[in-house]
Amino acid sequence: MSKPRILVARAIFPEVVARLAQHFEVESNPDDVIWSPQELAARLADKDGAFTTGSQRIDAALLAAAPRLKIVANMAVGYNNFDVDAMTAASVQGTNTPDVLTETTADFGFALLMATARRMAESEHYLRAGKWTTWRYDMFAGSDIHGSTLGIIGMGRIGQGVAKRGAHGFGMNVVYHNRSRLSPALEAECKARYVEKDELLRTADHVVLVLPYTPASHHTIAAAELALMKPTATLINIARGGIVDDAALAIALRERRIAAAGLDVFEGEPTVHPDLLTVPNVVLTPHIASATVPTRLAMANLAADNLIAFFDGRGPLTPVNQ
Ligand code: DGY
Question: What CATH number has the domain spanning 5-98+293-312?
Answer without folding.
Answer: 3.40.50.720
